[in-house]
Amino acid sequence: MQFGIFTVGDVTADPTTGRTPGEHERIKAMLAIAQKAEEVGLDVFATGEHHNPPFVPSSPTTMLGYVAARTENLILSTSTTLITTNDPVKIAEDFAMLQHVADGRVDVMMGRGNTGPVYPWFGKDIRDGIDLAIENYALLRRLWDEDVVTWKGKFRTPLQSFTSTPRPLDGVAPFVWHGSIRSPEIAEQAAYYGDGFFHNNIFWPASHTRQMVDLYRQRYAHYGHGTPEQAIVGLGGQVFMRKNSQDAVREFRPYFDNAPVYGHGPSLEEFTSQTPLTVGSPQQVIERTLSFRDYAGDYQRQLFLMDHAGLPLKTVLEQLDLLGEEVVPVLRKEFASLRPAGVPDAPTHSARVAAARETSKEGTQA
């Protein structure tokens, strides 16, 4: 099982000081956080994609290329690549290039995003959101899987004998997660291709997460990729920790109360009782995270949101120390002991290359 962090890259005032970091400072902080993730033994760093203030990660592959050069083991991912408003040709080329730069330590999470105005900024209509996601991804798959592509669709100019360059590393495209909070069509899309499904698991109760993951698992089996238990599932989550749970609650409360997304709404106590947000001791985070298995089944990737709502870099790095030293080692051991035989490991480039070669060998022998 893979453990890591994801960032949305918000530039938010620290409510305890009133200070707002500049864009440069925030970007540098995100890079420091990514490198810290490897230092403390995490597996994955993922960045969102946004094109509007107060967010800064408009060019994920630029950021991840930098991180690739300064890490050795960390898997580099997006926590949203906008399949609706990005050109599939550019996605194919950018992420294949990043694969080569990072020696295969790359995957990608497709999503529609949650910022409606982004569609006209890139010449698209939000009413076409689902159709864009379906058509663009179908083209992207062909661009990665086929050396020469001739294609015609509804939303972009046709392609005639086109080759995307560079080709995917070792002939194996980045593993794709389809991220969604509320759209069953995206769970269906992930199942159809046999890709991973990532449920953000931040704002919704366990009953909703169970419904979305169960739909994906059943449809994954329907399309012949394996049993429901063999489907590849990832979950998000939010935590804030201190050694003493009362200290965690007291310190995090002003950040929660003023957060851009959920501030000035339900109380911290209401939100933690109704969603997976966990504010407390490392042991409480361990127990809460292990409980995700009760409604999502055995899954392959767990990412945490750590650096939002104006939390200063020093505090985020302290959180990562706790996560890497006290939480993740226990979660690795406990999830491994609970996982039945036959549930697949989290996908890696090396494992997928080996599987592709074995499939090719069997085909040759047949």
From TrEMBL:
Checking SUPFAM superfamilies in the record gives:
Bacterial luciferase-like
Q: Which portions of the sequence form the region Disordered? A: 342-366
Where does the Luciferase-like domain start and stop, copy by copy? 1-294
**Keywords of this protein's UniProt record, alphabetized?**
Monooxygenase, Oxidoreductase
Does the keyword Oxidoreductase belong to this entry?
yes
The protein in question is named LLM class flavin-dependent oxidoreductase
